[in-house]
Amino acid sequence: QVQLVESGGDLVQAGGSLRLSCAASGVIVSINAMGWYRQVPGKQRELVARIYSGGSTQYADSVKGRFTISRDNGKNTVYLQMNSLKPEDTAVYYCNGNGWWGQGTQVTVSS
Q: How far is Cα of residue 97 from the mean position of the Cα atoms in its chain?
């Protein structure tokens, strides 16, 4: 059974930082492309960042230079370090791996 459990969402002021975690079971993060997505009410879920099995990464233009995706193979966990947060980053953030989704974690950035 696959489980992706996100954590780390919080309320933060603009300019602040958060680190999201996605603890995976049933899917090995080192050999699967793992991604972070976000969604706000009334809008489609959008890709934020992705890390591939070889370690290469991909980012949405809106977060380039501010967010960093990484993984800890020993902990089978994927992270999203978010710096210089903006109010428009407010969303529910979801982890995705091998077609499976976590339950999401809320990030709220106040102005």
A: 11
